[in-house]
Predict the 3D structure of the following.
Amino acid sequence: MLKKLYGLVLLFALSTSVLAAENLYEKNYRAQNNGNLTSLQANPDTKMYVSNHKDEDNISMLENGYDMMGSSGFEAGEVAPELALQHAKSIKADTVLVYSKYGSTKSAASKIQMIKDAAKKDGGEIDAKVLEAAPTNYIYYASYWAKLPAPLLGVHIIKLIRKGSVDDAELEAENKGLKVLAVVKGSPAEKAGLVRGDVLLKISGVELNKPEELSDLVRKFQGQNVAIEYEREGNKAIANAQINSRNQ
């Protein structure tokens, strides 16, 4: 029986070794909708940062002129963060942000290793309590970023849709505009005084109700000075922005 146990341990150990050779960051990578986004540099000097403030980091990256290429998320045992950097270099990312925290499940690989250690230490006698003490997995997440060209306007926005209104007209009124998630530093939007949390209502008198409408209008008015009507903390105001031009 003991020989069978060692045989199973060896088999699982070999399987675990093969799996460990995989780059789980690469295997679990999911590109954003703009899947063709890469660094502007042919051979970027990719940087890696390990953090635990994902939401704040995302805003900071957007404000500094980056956009997310994609992300990796998975649960596993010990995985070196350098593997995230390795994958980031392979997809030509400028920066990769890496996060990890304790998971909630116990991995088969961890239990197998404890069986091996216990068998060596106790001459083949394995205490059931040892198996219960198997370490938990970790939850890993990495986001990959590329520096963008100078923006035409320089805002990242989202369309907010509020639900639960009993009045269609009221619901439509609530849904007007686009909320600013981040303003790129040094951009026309920042120079015009727009800040995170503002709700963009109009550009040159044209209403903004969909993200693509903002993109179309910014391209239409590139190189021009435009009036942007927005709302901040319930008060409406107008900012004047000199839209950049990609032809310059």
Observations:
- The chain is about 35% helix and 30% strand.
- Residues 56 and 222 are 30 Å apart (CA to CA).
